[in-house]
Design a protein that fits this description.
The chain has 193 residues and is an all-alpha fold. 82% of the residues lie in helices and 0% in strands. The chain is elongated.
């Protein structure tokens, strides 16, 4: 067995795929090591985002392992991997385009309502953008803010649960409110132009 493990590093891509098909984790690690940097680079060129590229490549490797029984059918592992990456990247771009389109439609709907009723705009701001605005806070601020505003905890209860001082909790909430007001003000200016 030891001899076999040492040989893995000299396996061809096809041999590695066949070994992975049989559940060999070392072979899977070798495929990962061999292809990961180029796959990240390739995905990155398509989606123009290092984070998205890493997510895409990780997803491909997860699926590769989950569907490893099918790998024995693959004639050219390298071609296979890059085709899968390309398809995942295209799916990502399509989803991003849909999201952008949805956002633009929302902005248009909001702009339309500005003319009709400014209170409607404020209701929409509060409802549809609250989560996006809160997401801009630091994780600690988000937690404190949600505990205070959404779950109704007192400053002291939050301080006790998170092992913070009451003053720190007050500062987090004050900073959060300042940032939220600033973002809403900016949002309104964008909407009114």
């Amino acid at each position: 067995m030891q001899h076999h493990l040492n040989e893995i590093s000299s396996f061809t891509d096809k041999q590695l795929f066949e070994a992975v098909c049989e559940g060999n984790e070392r072979a899977f690690q070798h495929i990962f090591t061999r292809f990961y940097p180029r796959m990240i680079s390739f995905a990155g060129m398509m989606v123009k985002s290092r984070d998205a590229a890493e997510e895409i490549v990780q997803e491909v490797f997860i699926r590769l392992w989950e569907q490893r029984e099918l790998l024995s059918e693959v004639k050219s592992p390298e071609n296979y991997l890059f085709i899968v990456i390309r398809n995942q990247a295209l799916n990502h771009l399509r989803a991003a385009a849909k999201e952008q389109n949805r956002r633009e439609q929302l902005w248009e709907a909001l702009q339309q309502r500005v003319a009709d009723d400014s209170t409607t705009l404020e209701m929409l701001e509060a409802d549809q953008f609250f989560e996006q605005i809160v997401a801009r806070l630091t994780p600690q601020q988000q937690l404190v803010f949600r505990m205070s505003r959404t779950e109704g905890y007192s400053h002291q209860q939050i301080a006790d649960q998170l092992h913070l001082s009451k003053e720190t909790v007050k500062k987090h909430i004050a900073n959060s409110l300042t940032q939220l007001r600033s973002y809403l003000k900016h949002f309104r200016q964008v909407m009114l132009f």
